Amino acid sequence: MEKNIPHGGVQVVLTVSEEGGLDGSKHIQKEHLKADFGYALDSGGSPGQIILKAPGQNSIDVVIHGKTAHAGVAPEEGLNAIVVAGKALAQIKQGRIDEETTANIGIIAGGHATNIVPDRVELKCEARSRDVTKLAAQTEHMKQTFETVAASHGARAEVHIHHAYDPFVLAVDSFAVTLAAKAADSIGLKVALQATGGGSDANFFNNYGVPTAVLGVGMSKVHTTEEYITEQDLYHSGEWVAAIISAAAKKS
């Protein structure tokens, strides 16, 4: 607007709690989304990178129930839930399963004191895949492993699965993708069409019927204490968005 660039209608959506499970986009009132297509500025890779494919995710919450006992007086009377969980984890496929699928054990908590055999341990896990069949298979593998290993040691696994969000795929020749690519090229950015292993608000926006690509903005070392983005990439991202808005106006 400062440069008086011709533009059509532009809707800016600011969501909350993206890292908490895409809660903002999940609970947005869909009727308020008026855009024909959109972009989420939420990916690593240099400006010019366009994400066409992203995974769906299942959250897997597990409670292993064992039996408490005094660890020094009568440990044989107890059933250590943490040990049982460890045996299950040793059998679970995790990390990168294939190019489309990942799994992670993110949180484990249990026990009260070193002199008490712990009778309960809680785990929070996830599975992701850009292929819904693979997502279901990995989720079932994790569930069955926890339940089977627990039962084989006389313990019990309580497994709750929550479907967090669906995957999405945009065609290479879709309007949102070709427009972003043309805009990037017009300002000298190198265009790269990619798939990702990360979820974003675009997962829900696509599910709501608003084709939404994810744009690379230069985020590096994401989810670490060394996460950063360069000043140059911030400027390039802003210039790219302005170029997209300008290109969209010419198409309308």
UniProtKB/TrEMBL annotation:
InterPro entries (alphabetical): Bact_exopeptidase_dim_dom (IPR036264), Peptidase_M20 (IPR002933), Peptidase_M20_dimer (IPR011650)
GO molecular function: tripeptide aminopeptidase activity
Keyword Hydrolase (UniProt): yes
Record field: transmembrane: none
Protein name as annotated: Peptidase T
Keyword set includes Transmembrane: no
Keywords: Aminopeptidase, Hydrolase, Protease, Zinc
E.C. numbers: 3.4.11.4
Matching PANTHER family: PEPTIDASE, PEPTIDASE T
Cofactor(s) needed by this chain: Zn(2+)
Pfam families: M20_dimer, Peptidase_M20
Residue stretches making up the Peptidase M20 dimerisation domain: 58-151
